[in-house]
Amino acid sequence: MTDKKQLLIEATIDLFSRDGFWNTTTANIAKHAKVGTGTLFNYFSSKEALTDAVYFELKREMKSYIQKDYTETKDTMLNIEHVWYHYAHWAMEFPVRYDLLDQLWVSNQVSQEVENRLLEELKFMHKLLADAATKGLFGSLPQEYATAIMCSSMQAMIKYAQANNFSGDALEQHIAIGFSVLWNGISSIEGN
Question: Which among 28, 64, 78, 128 would be 20 to 30 A from 46, CA to CA?
Answer without folding.
Answer: 64
